[in-house]
């Protein structure tokens, strides 16, 4: 039986990964788990009580072992605790999902610098340190997988959030290239809008986001794991967003900034 560690497991996309990986199905890490077997899980988030409830539910439903690791990934202590778990060679982690993240409401200079720095800690420093702890051990074993949850915001010039997700994509592609042939797969997952707690937590209004732009977290995760199994290093697991990002790639950078901020004002979170 293999083990998956998911950060931000208690809500939204992370919770969908936890459900999917606890049940049967492929994880794309290259590990042989036996037919129909789910993963043991290590669940990471800040809310201890919610983690405990989630662990009990997944254990009771799927019969897998579920460890909880309460940690705040905006702190050195929290990142260090998860790094230590990933470095534990006696209980190896086969699949790491770096998913924890959040948005800050407002444009540049409206958002307090401390909140932007906190975002960089969770979206960049934590992802770098946890990916490094996990892949060092995976490379020794010759197998394993890492999914770093980025966003389609990585491809458009939209503030600190988009910039942090652009880092996630570039970093993941570079690391995947350097570890090619080692048996360790890395993939950046780039969702569009997903119905989760994300916008509500950031107190962003979503009324003007058209219905067709919303993705379902469970379908997103199923498609993402299929892409990991195929060996993709970047996954945009939806035809609508694939088409949109194709257009973005063809648009000159200078035009893109104005276009995305006009479109964002009209159809984006408020
Ligand atoms: N929803 C979207 O439209 C969308 C689109 C593209 C990309 N994404 C990305 O997808 C990822 C997941 O977002 P989501 O939409 O599923 O959000 P969500 O529903 O708000 O869930 C966020 C999860 O992250 C945890 N978390 C937040 N801050 C944390 C911290 N400092 N330390 C540890 N855990 C923390 C939360 O639990 P606790 O509060 O208990 O810590 C929760 O489990 C994020 O990286 C986000 O940027 C989301």
Automatic annotation (TrEMBL):
GO annotations of cellular component type: membrane
Pfam families, per database record: adh_short
Alphabetic keyword roster: Oxidoreductase
Entry-linked InterPro entries: NAD(P)-bd_dom_sf, SDR_fam
Single annotated GO MF: oxidoreductase activity
Sequence similarity: Belongs to the short-chain dehydrogenases/reductases (SDR) family.
Entries under PANTHER family matching the protein: DEHYDROGENASE/REDUCTASE SDR FAMILY MEMBER 7B, SHORT-CHAIN DEHYDROGENASE-RELATED
Protein name: SDR family oxidoreductase
